[in-house]
Specification:
Length: 367
């Protein structure tokens, strides 16, 4: 059932979907204070594995050290060079590529070539900058804010989704990125509403559910939607047969969870779809997609093959659905830039209203 009983206002004026000042405000009020996903344990599964990324304009180095994930600013305190420019890799030591300074797990300096030439050593600033890092399920979360709340408090109901299965039960089927010439809020709002399904996805998703079939949840930091999926009979027969081998009890119910501001966890049958929408300017964004498929609790050759096949099939479907949405994003964005209207939101789209209200409140737009 829907939570609201009457249509809702479009809280954010269209001009805020292309405004540079609003983009800067959202960066400081929505993104900088919180935990955000930077990768998955599949990106650094073994001791010594690392990957690099840019996070809120900062270069990060994420490293697996004896099974624990650590995150550092990817800058050497000696002469300010990037520790590494490699996207992925494995190394026995955490070493700067420029002068060979080595660092310990906690970021303190270890071996320094020709250390005697630095005497007297000032001490203190010659440490890597380290950031709070947590792993929930298969996902790696990082915050640059030392005063951020506990990750579990921020995630709220999404903790249950992350922790539904041990991390090693999830196999990464595929990951990819999109670059869209649209404001990030356009992608977020499209993802949380099903009203567009019959028009945009007539062959892939077919229809939206009736109100009595749908369950919406709205919290201060997240929203959720449970809905049936109209799938062909042959698909359901194949899925039911496969799920008995991988994880009996999995359902075909579509569960979408939006952790504000930009994290989406989608659970259906034996799949976890993770999407992160990252603003890159007032009028552009990146959508990062990771698709995980459950491994059998007791794996064998047959179950491994089934897991891989199911993952490939799910990724094909997901890419088709996302392409159908992406086709309209530029028109949505252009319409926002030119619209003289206030806009209106249906009860079926009430998760859009909840997200807009979150942006409005966090950015202090009513002050």
């Amino acid at each position: 059932m829907f939570i609201n009983t009457a249509r809702l206002p479009h809280v954010l004026p269209p001009r805020l979907y292309s405004c540079p000042a609003q983009y800067e405000l959202e960066q400081s009020r929505l993104f900088a204070p919180v935990w955000l996903v930077v990768g998955s344990i599949s990106d650094a599964p073994h001791d010594g594995d690392f990957f690099t990324c840019e996070h809120l304009g900062q270069p990060l180095l994420v490293r697996n050290i004896q099974g624990t994930i650590h995150t550092y600013l990817n800058v050497c305190p000696h002469r300010h060079c990037l520790l590494t420019h490699a996207a992925y890799g494995n190394s026995q030591t955490l070493t700067c590529q420029y002068h060979g300074w080595e660092f310990n797990e906690d970021g303190r300096t270890g071996k320094i070539p020709d250390a005697q030439s630095f005497k007297p050593f000032p001490g203190g600033p010659e440490c890597l900058q380290k950031f709070r890092t947590e792993v929930r399920g298969p996902l790696i979360f990082v915050t640059l804010n030392e005063n951020a709340p506990n990750l579990a408090d921020q995630l709220g109901p999404l903790v249950e989704v992350c922790d539904e299965f041990p991390a090693n039960r999830w196999r990464l089927a595929d990951s990819w990125n999109y670059e869209f010439p649209v404001n990030w809020k356009v992608v977020v709002e499209n993802t949380v509403e099903s009203y567009h399904v019959p028009t945009v996805h007539p062959r892939t998703l077919i229809r939206y559910g009736r109100e009595e079939e749908i369950e919406h949840g709205i919290c201060d930091e997240s929203t959720s939607m449970r809905s049936p999926i109209a799938t062909p009979a042959f698909y359901r027969r194949i899925a039911d047969w496969l799920l008995r081998s991988l994880e009996p009890g999995c359902t075909h119910v579509y569960r979408l969870h939006h952790g504000f501001p930009n994290l989406f966890l989608i659970r259906v049958d034996a799949m976890l779809q993770v999407m992160v929408v990252t603003p890159t300017s007032a009028e552009s964004c990146r959508l990062s997609v990771r698709v995980f498929v459950l491994r059998a609790a007791k794996e064998n050759l047959r179950s491994r093959l089934l897991t891989r096949a199911w993952g490939r099939f799910k990724c094909i479907i997901i890419k088709m659905i996302l392409a159908e949405d992406a086709r309209l994003y530029p028109d949505m964005h252009q319409g926002m830039k030119c619209s003289p209207f206030e806009g209106t939101i249906s009860t079926r789209e009430e998760l859009v209203y909840a997200f807009q209200d979150y942006v409005y409140r966090r950015c202090g737009l009513g002050a």
